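Sample A.
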Amino acid sequence: MKNKKMMMIKILLSFIVVFTFAFQAQAGEVYKLALSLAITGPTSDAGSPYSMGVEDYFKYVNDMKLLGNDKIDCTIRDDQYKSAVTKRNFEDFLDQGIVFYLNYSTGSTLALKKDFEEEQMPVIPASFHAGNLIDSNYIFLPIASYSAQAIGLAEYIVKNHKGGTPKVAMFIHPSAFGRGPVSDVEKSVKAGLDMEIVEIVEHGKDLDNTAMLKRLGSKGVQYVISQTIQSPVATMIKDAARLGIVAKTFGEKGKITFMGCHYTGGNDLVALAGPASENYYWTTSYIVTSEPGVGTDAQLALAKKYGRDDKTANSHNYANGVMVAQVAAEVILRAKAKGNKITKEILYEELQQMNGINAFYPVTTVGPVTYSKTDHAGVDTLQLYAVKNGAFKSVGAPFIPEYTGKIK
């Protein structure tokens, strides 16, 4: 009798083990990722839709079982654009066992650079500051840097300006985020880009740019390149429209043509500035929903699936968030396909193999995402857009700035 009882216990235990493994196989693995960003506070006009893009795409990955039975669990926290809060968030995320991290601001990315190195954590920030990559092995920019964007705008000015050397001013955010591209544009001028940088304006919280705009006009400035966020640009171009100095055609003599990098434009700017945004030129690597196409259809469908309002659905910063989530999910998928255990080390190596025939083509961008051991800038291709009849439209074909390679 005792032997029969022992046998029954062993059989029951074996069933428990089998059912446990079967349940685990059915449930799949859960991969921990995290994002800290400004959902509220300064730059929240970009951070809020960005966070929704990240959240929605990871929901899509899980709901559509793109990773089979495995799931992504991405913790998203608001840091209000405060680097000290970002650091505390990151330390907490590490305790949770994350294998991939999505950061946000330029300031916090620079502040945490050593932490990323020590933890050997692959990181994609929302900041496209070229300085993020200096003395860094683990930071990967999603698209072309702010420097590349500003240089691309400067090259377009030089190629399309009529009548001598164009005079240009730069309107920048008073931070590392804003100042980053200035020296690289200056280097391009020294390297032969035929353009005069007349003045660099670090904007404050002024609600009236009249004096500044009149000063630039008196100096013969015909172009302003902005590297900041949408709200101060909207204020500036509305003031310029009120003064009657906005160029109706590119490079119109006696007027000013306004231009800007990624965070200065998009449908959000049109909503803020209204008719004053007409003929504003802007560059980014992302598609915009004012242009028909597969990327636009996919972005709007994703936003609709998860109940986002029209403003969020049409924001290029929503696309920005979707894209970084796409890259993170893609490297996990590629590592799984090779039979690798998903760790931060494996994902880091997988990112660096994303080039050549292994380049990644998300529908959210105008070019492929490519990384290697020596190149941690993702989409090298930019698209120039301009507001025509109240909507951003493509100007020419996607391009790669020439002088980014000349000043290295």
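Sample B.
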Amino acid sequence: MKAFYIIPALVIVAATALSSVFTVDERDKVLVLQFGEIKQVIDKPGLYLKVPFIQDILKYDDRILGLTTAPQEFPLADNRRLVVGAFARWRIVDLQKFRRAVGSGGVDAASANLAAIVAPEVRDVLGEVTVEAVLSSSRVGLMNKIRDNAREKAATLGVDIIDVRLTRTDLPQQNLQATFARMQAERQREATDEIARGNEAAQTLRAEAERTSVEITSEANKNAEIVRGQADAKRVAIYAAAYGKDPEFFAFTRSLTAYAKALPGDNTSIVMSPNSEFFSYFNTESPTTPPTTPPAAPAP
């Protein structure tokens, strides 16, 4: 009978001993609660004891957590609208304050509260600048300002906002077509200006090339005329010297040339007097001795 009671007692004692022991991981922070009140905060890893059935433990993530805010549309300082989304990284630094602020909601409740802090800060900070500032290198300073403002408000939750980044900066859908049309018109204007400047440069080059061509052609024609005139003068001098030696032979060769051009041999007909001077070399043996009797009339 005693063994019947001893075994259950040992089981109860073992269960009680096991329930009083818990471990803390290096990635966690632990709150020890007694009847709902915070009795101990444990932020170092190891093996710990608690009072069974009286004390409870709550574990919280000690790592850096992420928060993504929903994209929101709002106007900027230049009256242009943007759709902006942000991402924040945060960490629990004061576990007791965190517990009192979010209660039993834990990390999910804290994320909702942080989103309600970060989103208005994004709207307030970016609402004071232009689109160019948001899309330029000034963006880093704007994100740091959002982080600092949100960090002050998030301190009441027992958390520290480590960083805030803008993950999306888009134009609203209704403005995209107008923006694209404006960009296209601007690019078209730039293309037209480039084409006009190119045509102007091409026209200048073409005019210079034509002027150079005319100058080169004129110079070449002038040189050719000079050479041709010199050659003609030399030819005339040679002919004059040659013909001056024998005028009769010159008259004879000139007449033969005239006969060759006037009578090519393809049924040419010439009607003139047989006593014409043109046929003088056909009528006499010597062009200097005129014929004694006129030649017979040619047959028809």
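B remarks: Residues 173-245 form the longest helix (73 residues). The longest strand covers residues 81-92.
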